[in-house]
Structures are given as C-alpha cells and as structure tokens.
Amino acid sequence: MIDKYLVSNCLFIIDDFNERYKNVSNEELKIISNTEYSEADMVVRLGYPFRQMATFNMQGKSKEAGNDIVVKSKDFKIEVKLLRNYKSSTGVANSSVWSEIERDFSWLSEEIERGFKGKRAFVVGWFNVVERFSQIVQLGKGRGSTPDIDHRRMGFFPFLYNISEKTKDIKYKYISAYEELEVNSLYLNSGSVKCMFFGAPTDVFHIAVFW
C-alpha cells in the first residue's frame, strides 16, 4: 500500500528537478547536487504531500531516534537516503559507504518479517550526474577504480544489469523503470522486498523505492 502513495510523489520530484535544471550543464549540476542539497531536502520533498499527517526526523543515524518520515494515521514509516558525492577530509568521495545503505535495507527486511509489509519503505534518490550507478554506490568486492562486481550487493538493485564482471560495466535497465521488481539479494529472503525505479536517461534525478 505504501508504494501507491509514494509513486506520485516521486514523479513530481523528478519533474520539478527536470524543470529547474533544464538549462544547467552536467558539470554545474554536479556542483549543485554536492553543495546545495542534503538528505533533509529529499525528506521534506518526499513527505510534503502527506501534509500535516507526517512528522519528520532528521536527527542522525539512529533508528531509535525515529524514522525519517512517519505517517502515524497510516502506520507508515519511511527511511530516505540521498546518494551524492560528498566532502571528506581527503577531498570528494565518489561512492556512498555500503554499510550505511545496508543498514536501511536490514531495517526494511526486519520490519517486513515483523508483519509490516506495505507499511514500511526505503527510498533512495540521486542526481543523474555520473555515468554509472557504481560511481556513487560501492558495488565492488574491493577497492580500486574497476573492482569485480559483488553480486550480493548488486542484487539489491534490480534496475541494474552488467555486461562484464567489472563494476565499470554496470548499466541502468531503463526498460524496467516504473515497474514493480523483486529484489534478489543473498542478504534478503527472496521476493520479500519489492522495488520500483523512477528515471529515464534524460532525467536529472533518479529515485528507487523499496518496500
């Protein structure tokens, strides 16, 4: 049920960014995405259509402090992550730390097992400013510029496919956008988590919803 509420929200977010940045170059958009947006921006955009029904928590990483979006009247709880290049002490890192993403997938899987399927969701968004998804999420078995693919990780993202065993050859399966997909990862029970990918090659922003 929760996915039905989120579909229109995601489409509006993408349309808004497309209109806002239709005359902005890719290099400019990289800077904008890295300096002008935070996870809190995505939380607010995603939760806005719920109006007064929603409460927001942006107090950090602890689930004990509350989920990013809570719609109490519907018993909805939503975790949100904005993937981006981020500033670090050594410069700009190119991919999100896997443990942070895995933590939210684990939370979703545990909630589904507890009987909350259809009432919990994990939403991931990112600006479409790099060539490959593997440039913003660690999908390799090790470090380096072109590591071998870790298929346990890649299995979380059914909108991807690979043409070799190197992360540089992971591509978007745009033909599967806007369809309900099954997440097939060895980390999760097969078929327990569903996914929908929102995006086209020309869209400046992409979203994946897991529930």
TrEMBL record:
Protein name, entry field: Uncharacterized protein
Superkingdom of origin: Bacteria
Species of origin: Psychrobacillus glaciei
